Amino acid sequence: MAVENNTHVSEFLLLGLSQEPEVQPLIYVIFLSMYLTTVLGNLLIILAASSDPRLHTPMYFFLCNLSLVDICLTSTIVPRMLQNILLQTKAISYEGCITQIYFFVLFICLDDFLLTVMAYDRFVAICHPLHYTVIMNPRLCGLLVLGCWVLGLLNSSMEISVTLRLYTQPLAAENDTHMSEFLLLGLSQEPEVQPLIYVIFLSMYLTTVMGNLLIILAASSDPRLHTPMYFFLCNLSLVDISFTSTTIPKMLQNIQTQRKAISYEGCITQIFFYVLFISLDDFLLTVMAYDRFVAICHPLHYTVIMNPRLCGLLLLGCWVLGLLNSSMEISVFLHLSFCPEVEIPHFFCELNQLIKLACSDTFLNNLVMYCAVFLVGMGPLLGIIYSYSKIISSIRGMASAQGRYKAFSTCASHLAVVSLFYVTSMGVYMSSTVSERAYPSAVASVLYMVVTPMLNPFIYSLRNKDIKRALKMFFVQGTAKRSIVLH
Known about the structure:
By secondary structure, the chain is mostly helical. It is built from 15 helices and five strands.
């Protein structure tokens, strides 16, 4: 709830390194000299590397980016400090302070990530000198720098989102009640329909878990499937199991016990893992599109480019981005206030529905949510579209029809899963935007939360001879082992 005596903070006072007037000129000269040296020195590095074609290598590409970030980092703080000394003022506006925090966190993170990337570049150059130009190709270098910026922006946005809450809610209202639980209304409130819903969702959940587990077991047991494509597929199956397990078991429990309640802590946990796993689904589908792009467009260099180390890094990047996105969503959600006995017209704690039901200001939550949808949703989708545009271009350039068919068949399953995932996700978004009623959105959520993970194993196994052979071998070996034990 809003507090009546809430005052508007317009500025802060920066006390600086020293408050003694006689020391200020010396501080001004020292910091101005260091700032000019920093800017000119790093600019010279950028100009030298840009003007000499012999320095157009990954190492100097990353060095130029590091120099640019160093200029920006010092420019975030020092000019303001010099201005305050020169004008003999200590004030900085609230907006100026927020901006300074945002860019300071961004550029310090970029510095950290770029130094890590440069260490990886040196590792490849020294440990794999013959494959250096293939591994550290311009596309990978660009992706690494882009990854640094995305991670930096997400971290900076998360820090700012919680800082802004210090301004919007500086005091706690005396009559603010602690929210202990929410009520999940589910898909239907009619008692006679509950057994049918229970049976349907239990069947779909068990099918999802068993289907995806079989994909993991088949790919793990067959050495011929120990390739990047099936490595990412196994991780996608694991994420799909975790995704459905975040919401469906609680829904089934509520139907069975005839209770609708979920604790506040349980709701927060559900939101966190729901956002995490749906983000991971999105990122993994993008990585799998990149894997298919390399396999079809660069078949001779496939094993060198998609080496185990890069596959591990791509998977780690998916988890890091997913955790950052989920943490950012939760950090702003935790500051929302709710009225007693909040009823959620859904079968799980859906973030958008909860934001609509909040009693406090939700502007920041909506801003963060829509930014996350754009970055986490549209960013990977553009990457997938770009990969498939290159794949289609490469397939069209193949001479034989058999070669074109074989190349397209390797990515047909992935393309079907991507289409299913994005069509159902967009269906949820459109249903919540067009209709004010929550029921259409809840029904649409079933498609991408339950139906899509359930269908993924079937899509990947029905037309995939490798998966079929691996599953057959897995069951044959299992039957043989049981026969030996019985005898």
